[in-house]
Amino acid sequence: MHYNAPWWLPGGHAQTIWPALHSRINRLPALPYRRERWATPDDDFVDVDWRDAPIDPLGAPGAPLLVLFHGLEGSSNSHYALALGQWAQAQGWSFAVPHFRGCSGEINLAPRAYHSGDFEEIGWILARFAACHAGPLLAVGVSLGGSALLRWAQEAGSTADSVVQALASISAPVDLTASGQAIGRGLNRQVYTRMFLASMKPKAMRKLAQFPGLFDAQALQKARDLYDFDNVFTAPLHGFKNTRDYWQRASAKPHLADIRLPTLVVNALNDPFVPAASLPKQREVGAQVTLWQPAQGGHVGFAAGPPPGHLQKLPQTVGGWLQAHL
Fold first, then answer.
1. Would you kindly state where each structural domain of the chain is located, as residue ranges?
2. Is residue 79 annotated as part of the catalytic site, yes or no?
3. pTM over 0.90
4. 53 confidence band (pLDDT: 50, 70, 90)
């Protein structure tokens, strides 16, 4: 596996921001998804967007299904979802994006949202996919989704490979404390933190309208970084004492040696808010875990080619690695 950023995208910020803008600037068509709504055990719902594989005229067994868990405030139309979905379609695979609660365009019903250590939700979703799909099942998690997917694999241990054949995480903040501190400083705070909070705060206030008294509205409106937001909203709603407890217990890095199925962990060393110093070394992970830590790529970036570039390098590399484990 090898990656060099194109000359016209110098540095981690450019390599992060341009791919996120790519689909809008170049007017990439959205994938023609079909949507299913799954009722959850706690009387809520999860919306799943599907891109079905072509029907095999010979009646061969089902094609592989690639499941993508999106990142913070992402969706099935995020740039990485479109790129990975196009790649899966070209392989003749099925592709599905389950939306974390509140991310499908409609507010969810329960007094909760989603978080980086949401392994129980991941486990329920993957079990549902395994039950309804006849072919092999593969999973990719991006950023927050990658963190939650790794936590599921760690908690599932030796039973994980009975559900999924292989998985990959892309740009996951495996040390949430290090990433939380990094995104709350300097340019990261001005660009990425402001962008996330501009989406997350209104959603939280809509949740408060559903459940008056759920949290302190004034404290949430005063939040200026993810530490403050998680302290008011994410941590208490999901059973954590505070942000520090949440970031510590939800981090995947301390448990990477517990993973028992083929797993690829991708992190660029110039990711603006996943510090290179926080990334694991090969000696810290299990024998089934492969680390790919290229010098460049940014956060879920990895654009390639001459201007305006394309986003197929990451799907080709990650997808090819998963394909080799079928």
1. 12-175+252-323, 185-250
2. no
3. yes
4. confident
Query: 216 catalytic, yes or no?
Result: no
Which member of 49, 118, 258, 271 is catalytic?
Answer: 271
Question: Residue for token digits 């990334």?
Answer: 279
Superfamily of domain 12-175+252-323: Alpha/Beta hydrolase fold, catalytic domain (3.40.50.1820)
Dmax (CA) for the chain in angstroms is: 61
Task: List, edge to edge, every strand of the sheet that includes 34-39.
Answer: 34-39, 45-51, 94-98, 65-69, 137-142, 166-170, 263-266, 289-292
Q: Which member of 143, 147, 169, 171 is catalytic?
A: 143
Instruction: Name the one residue in this structure whose structure tokens are 């090898």.
Output: 2
Q: Which helix or strand (DSSP H or E) is residue 139 part of? A: strand 137-142
Long-range contact set of residues 182-187: C-beta below 8 Å, sequence gap at least 24 = 182/272, 182/273, 182/274, 182/275, 183/225, 183/226, 183/272, 183/273, 184/225, 184/226, 184/227, 187/13, 187/272
Of the candidates 144, 134, 62, 132, which has an alpha carbon nearest to the alpha carbon of residue 99? 144
Distances in Å between the Cα of 42 and the Cα atoms of 62, 204, 215 are: 31, 19, 20
Element (H, E) at 15: helix 12-25
Rounded Cα gap, residues 106 and 113, in angstroms: 12
Q: How many residues does the chain have?
A: 326
Among 51-55, 239-243, 247-251, which stretch is predicted with the lowest mean pLDDT?
Answer: 51-55
Q: Is 147 a catalytic residue?
A: no
Q: How confident is the model at residue 54 (pLDDT cuts 50, 70, 90)?
A: confident
